[in-house]
Write a structure and sequence with these properties.
Blueprint: H1 4-62
């Protein structure tokens, strides 16, 4: 049978572990929230990038002489 001091020591360790677990759970929840927000930002940036590429391509097609835009000049 454990003594009172051993039980108090084990109880203190249990409380310390529970405290650490609570902090870790809070940290994980905060990181999860930040990651979700970053993923939303990334998805928005990808959509905007694709829209810009499409608009650029459309503008290139409308410019006169655009069929030569990707060719290197003769002196290369």
């Amino acid at each position: 049978m454990p003594t009172d001091s051993e039980l108090e020591h084990l109880q203190g360790q249990l409380i310390e572990l529970q405290t650490q677990l609570a902090f870790q759970e809070d940290t994980i929840a905060g990181l999860n929230t930040a990651l979700a927000a970053q993923q939303q930002d990334l998805n928005l940036l990808k959509r905007q990038w694709n829209l810009l590429k499409q608009q650029y391509s459309e503008l290139q097609q409308q410019l006169p002489g655009s069929e030569f835009a990707d060719e290197k000049p003769p002196h290369y």
